[in-house]
Amino acid sequence: MAVKQTKEFRREAVRIALNSGLSRKRVATDLGIGKSTLGHWVSQYRTADLSTPEPQADLARENERLRLENRVLREERKILKKGHAVLRETKAMRFAFICEHRDRWSIDRLCRVLRVSTRGYRAWISRPVCQRQRTDLKVLAHIREHYALSNQTYGRPRMTAELKEAGLNVGERRVGRLMKVNGIRPVRTRRHKVTTDSRHALAFADNVINGNFLANAPNRKWAGDISYIWTNEGWLYLAVVIDLFSRRVIGWVASDRMKKDIAIRALEMAVRLRNPSPGCVFHSDRGSQYCSHDFQKKLTECRMVPSMSGKENCFDNAAVETFFKTLKAELLWRQIWPTRRQATAVIFQYINGFYNPQRRHSYLGSIRTLAFEAKVA
Fold first, then answer.
1. Phi–psi pair at 173, nearest 5 degrees
2. CA separation for the pair 319, 188 (Å, rounded)
3. Of 142, 197, 223, 303, which has the highest C-beta tally within 10 A?
4. What does the pLDDT look like over 255-297, one tens digit per residue?
5. C-alpha pair distances (Å), 165 with each of 132, 145, 341, 367
6. Spatial CA neighbour of 4 closest among 286, 12, 244
7. What is the per-residue pLDDT across 273-282, written as a single tens digit (0 to 9) for each?
8. Distance from CA of residue 135 to its chain's centroid?
9. 210 backbone φψ class: left, alpha, beta (φ>0; ψ -120 to 50)
């Protein structure tokens, strides 16, 4: 950007060059002028033998010098804040960072902060791109695409699996390096909060599953649970039913009231969708909604076998707890939902548009839920 070179500006530039203790090259770079131009102004100043400045003018110039130094330090701090991770990388990665941000900051300043020489940067910029760098750019493009498709939730392991499925032969270390350097990070999660109320006089069923969440075919083992979601209108309650074979959500109901019918309605949806054979195990916690006579009667009508977690042991229903944690971390915790209807709509879109057909599950490895079920069916 061109600097308006007024007489006062030239005078101040000369005095900063003579009194600041900085090199003329640095002063010229900071002021956006050429070094030879600054030298010419200094020569003119000495030849003209300007009068000695007054104390007030001298103080104003010193303040101007300090403001200039503060501006330079602030810019260098911004560079370090944005590129501190690049300092631990190779020179090629630092040169790439300089090339990406050279429109925002001067190349000399970027090189000084990142501890590389301008001569090395010029040599790097004129050097042909090697095959490894071409591959990195290709992999990075795929990483950005899958990162966006996963709602910015995939970390290094799932991202590596996605890239291998897309035909790219890459390892986790390379994927992790590219994600770290380019600031691609999954959303952080929160701690789990226990919400099940098992303090009631209803009967409990035996723990048939007993921690074994593996199933060799669809509709052999189901699991259900209820979770709380906060909106500006109040709590929204979500009941789900999951097939433990594929981790697919096959029934779910959202309601503004916590009653036993919410669990029954989720079960009825799953039964209508799957029509399970007799003997399918339904596992849940010891909440009153699942221990109620009406819910147990519904299981009997569907010829399903009830199973319940141990007392105060959330890990006995870990599959559904994991789903709730994933749903909240990848979707619900990102913002405050104004209404229950809006929260219900995004949950529907998440389950049917991403979680069931697309999201990669650690339990299934490299196999999708739909493809997994179709392969066995």
1. -65, -40
2. 20
3. 223
4. 988 887 899 999 999 999 999 999 999 998 888 888 888 999 9
5. 20, 14, 36, 10
6. 12
7. 999 999 999 9
8. 24
9. left
